[in-house]
């Protein structure tokens, strides 16, 4: 029986949605299987929308000159990313970060995917590795049967860690006679709500976190480590009384207008939706029981009467040992018709997951057409991320990783510390522009018309003389 599709994508998160879009825009027929909406769900999702953002509503820094994730944003825009397009359309204030109205964002992505004539969205659970061309983008909450099938194929158990979710608060329940609006060092405007704590309040808060009742673990979760970039607030507190003051509760650079001084510690809230009615507690992912969260978090000045739209939670996050199991084009070495994309590959973060979705799709489409898609240079953000998960990392100690300058080759000459980040991004933009200019005409037009792609490259800092190749017949 002949398939009614060219490529099968399993998982409708950010990576799967991005991969579906890239393939569809390349003219391939896509079957996108998503178990949510078909009678199944996960411990963390709240809807059946595609690309639902579970943990935070932030894509983190949008600074392409001094931050690796901001650089990745611009590279993805140049590659016609649906995720970045939807993120830009539904942006909410967050200083120099790209934060979005998560419901509007997911609705936008869902609408774009479902309306694309080359995509068929099927609400179904996939429990086995298919034998046809497939991209597995099931994320950190891969269904148990599919996870077992992956383990059986690879001969290895999936690695796993815990990922925690921060609470969301109704804006009108915050006492603004105590809290105030500001961004650290006044960068990006007054985009955060700041709740100040003095030393006594801070010490009492830390003690309450440590003593608070936590959610119990299942037996199979007992030895699962936490990812350092998403550490529960109470676990940080247990590392030492000053840990939070030098982490998510750092008061440095925040002048309290009522005292003219920096607070001893601070809790920041970041806007979570376009209406500004919901705000999330920055860095406050937690495994405290729900009743304890309400009790303890209402001891924070300004949050005494806080009403919670969502309380924090915790879930098990699974990923494969990609450096050992995948080749340079994200294919499973033992079953090369299957590619992996997103967080299940061990990349950490929304945009990182979507970026790997872009590359998995482009590799798959080129292979389907009997062509070769050259991987992006390791000097670029997206190329460095790909290299890390496909062999750059040590397979013996492999752990999830956000994009960062440390994944890129060292600079050829010593740069002054103040210029080091800019030196990395300057080199990356030059390398990205050269690579983009060498992509064949029909591939260079994926994700939009050539003129749009060139404009995206210019936004990414590529030279202004880049020309989009003329579209050839059938290209």
Description:
The chain is an alpha+beta fold and 475 residues long. It has 2 domains: 7-158 and 320-459, FAD/NAD(P)-binding domain; 164-316, Elongation Factor Tu (Ef-tu), domain 3. It contains 14 helices and 17 strands. The protein has helices spanning 14-25, 68-78, 82-89, 102-115, 144-154, 199-211, 233-238, 290-297, 322-325, 350-368, 381-392, 420-438, 441-444, 450-459, and strands at residues 7-10, 30-34, 58-61, 91-92, 97-100, 119-123, 134-136, 159-165, 168-170, 180-182, 192-197, 265-271, 278-281, 308-310, 313-319, 331-332, 335-340. The protein has a 6-stranded mixed sheet with strand order 6-2-1-7-17-16, with helices on one face. A hairpin with a 6-residue loop joins strand 12 (265-271) and strand 13 (278-281). Helix 1 (14-25) runs parallel beside helix 10 and helix 3 (82-89) crosses helix 4 (102-115). The radius of gyration is 22 Å and the shape is globular.
